């Protein structure tokens, strides 16, 4: 199945034709399928069409550190341009992704500076997300970082028109959150209870409900500027 | 002063001419100068010629999380392609950097797929470094992450021909290391003492000496594959 990914940005018809010519193929992965494994040769790039992805590093002792959960419309490129994947990429839920060979993309860049700006903007946004996750782990308390991540995921889904201001469907377990937040699942459980008791949010039955979003954003020091999409004003 | 940065990769003469035409300007910053501040409009890209840089996020409570110390030959792009800087960039030591407008670079990409591959490779490498720092904070013990960072910095300097296998000149204080490792300076001090007592390394008078590098790499789970330069086999 061939189809081009849609970026929410100002591409003209000529750029869209270039994008369509890059050889993106739409593929479906069942939940928990491994799409790329850390250390394997990796020469594809991906754009999520629907579902939740998960990228993580695996440590020698079998632990994992989740780096991010790529969502609808987002780009997964990691080290596609020269060799082995520095991280694993799996389907957190059933996942539809556009895939293209990294080399085709390089050729595409050469044909359209607009497309190059969009691509580099998308890569920079994914990097800015990693930077916030790093800041979460290093300098935000367990409670603040739990709040910050949930606010971020909600905001990203809103920008992809997949969530409302009030909350979002969240397929993550407390184990997943723990591996993303550098905590144990028990600790995450306690943090979610405390966020509920403080009247900030409720997370149950696979759904996050922001009870007091404004207060939560203030508490977590959450400034959504880094989630601006390429071309978004 | 105009001069083009040298990437250690397979660019042909034509690519080098393209690189030279992108408008890189060599600038000198004194130690601790602010080159780009978080939240400011940011439309430049940088390649370090000599010295140590430092990129970090500033939190509302005045704390900072150091993301990385960009070194000789390395690329600093963060969010140069669409607006405000998500992080601050300062000179850790006196710093010589090549600067170019991000827009000129986009035009350059369009002229040479080779150059585009080198640029994307350099961005991907800086991202792989962030990923390891994130993994340090989330899933490596204080002792392991201290060892991992020092091994990484030594390896990066070696690849830039600025260090030997035995060790490297290191201008970082224990406060800098603390802000990079998510620890306090007192904790870093204890970790450095423990690494010395275990016979792994000595860090004093601004110099890191690897006493037992092989053992240290094993202990820290350090695999230097992610530091491969674009085009390096």
Automatic annotation (TrEMBL), chains A, B:
Keywords: DNA-binding, Plasmid, Transcription, Transcription regulation. Pfam families: cNMP_binding, HTH_Crp_2. GO terms for molecular function: DNA binding. GO terms for biological process: regulation of DNA-templated transcription. Residues 140-214 form the HTH crp-type domain. This is cAMP-binding protein. It comes from Sinorhizobium sojae CCBAU 05684.
